[in-house]
Amino acid sequence: MGCEPATTTAPAHLSRLRLPPRGTLHRDLVVSTIDAAAYSVMVGCGETYFPAFSLALGLGPIVTGMVATVPLLVGAIVQLASPLVIRRVGGHRRWVILCTVIQAASFVPMVVWAIRGEAAPWQLLLATSLYWASGMAAATAWYTWMAGLVPGRIRAGYFAQRNRIGQAFVLVAFVTAAFLLQAEDTQDTALVGFAILFTVAAVARLVSTVCLVACRERLPHKTWMATMAPLGLAARIRAGWRGVQAGHAGRVVAFLCCFMFGIQMAGPYFTPYMLEELGFSYTQYLVVVGAGFFVKAVLLPTIGRIGSRLGPWRLLRYAGLAIVPLSLLWLPSEAVGWLVGVQLLAGACWAAYELSVGLLLFEVAGDRDRGNLIGVYTLGIAVATVSGAACGGILLRWLGEDRTAYAAVFAASSIMRALTIPLLLRIGTTRRSQATR
């Protein structure tokens, strides 16, 4: 907290600003929430603008799609080896802290390229791959860490509130970044604006790291050592695959991966569509994309309460069905007002989907199997992301990269999402049948 006054009393409004006592669950939850806010600033002014940065460097929509997806596959492969390192460093907490420092450092070359005004595609792919590899390696350990820290009875409410605060900070960072880029763009210095944004993102990640340092790891030593059995990479994949095949976990992962394939056929190409094909300014881009962040922040507490009543399984079912036609809604009109409405609807759907998926990852596996299961799930999602984006990119290039081509990609994405509905419905049916036994 820094230096504190020597007096033993303080005004009430200052007392409320102090963190709870050390060694308490309340303090851990508060610190974790601050971590989420700082992390979200990094996402809002850093990660979210990777595609726009690629376009500003003149790398084109196809390379931009690769920048948004290929690093995810690299990160998913790297994170499979993280349990081997966790065992050596002595815990999930230490590994997460190390990864977040590396993630902050990944912004340094991007700042240099923004100042210089150029970067080769392979250089940008390398830097973003380091960003995603460190972030995804941290995420696998973070889930196990948080599963031991946050009691099951409060997870839905706590993570809904935590996600809400995170989304609010993503929105603030995203809006501020867009205004900065718009101001710099009018002076032909937009790349300098990216240098400022990526510097802020790196600092925000370091602030997040400080919060992680202040948060305890409550998972018993014997338990996390059991989850970190000294398996080789191939053995880990086999163990994770057996966990995926067991029970309803396999059906959940199968749906999520297939669904992600359909989503990513269009996902990486919305930014090029707005900034290049429609010629949106950064302000217009801000209004459209920011609408989704805004509605997430506003609705997450309500969605958290609904999720507590429905449970993550039914919440996933409703959210998944609602997401299926969303990319089709980009076709009737190119007006900013219409697209804002689409994004408001999409933000509500995605808030429910992300909350349900996050809760399911805690529920479908025990402490011993969670690391392997999440590792294989992450790899599957990454493969689906890259292959879906590749299919969308091939279709976009084949049809000429014009508005008709973008429309075809968006329609194909919704069709592929719709084909996963039987898998989604099977999840709910299987879960109900197991509950009645």
Strand content: under 5%
What structural class should be given to the helix and strand makeup? Answer: mainly alpha
Radius of gyration over C-alpha positions, nearest whole angstrom: 22 Å
Low-pLDDT ranges: 1-17, 221-231, 432-437
Describe the structure.
- By secondary structure, this protein is mostly helical.
- Helix 3 packs across helix 4 and helix 15 runs antiparallel to helix 16.
- The longest helix has 32 residues.
- The N terminus and C terminus are likely disordered.
Summarize the structure.
The chain is mainly alpha-helical and 437 residues long. The chain has 20 helices and no strands.
Give me the secondary-structure topology:
Elements: H1 12-15, H2 25-45, H3 50-56, H4 60-79, H5 82-89, H6 92-105, H7 107-116, H8 121-149, H9 155-185, H10 190-213, H11 221-227, H12 233-245, H13 247-264, H14 270-277, H15 282-310, H16 312-323, H17 336-363, H18 367-398, H19 403-418, H20 421-435
Helix pairs in contact: 2-9, 2-10, 3-4, 4-8, 4-18, 6-8, 6-10, 7-10, 8-18, 9-10, 9-15, 11-18, 12-18, 13-18, 13-19, 13-20, 15-16, 15-17, 16-17, 16-20, 18-19
List keywords for this structure.
Growth Hormone, Chain: A, 437 residues, mainly alpha
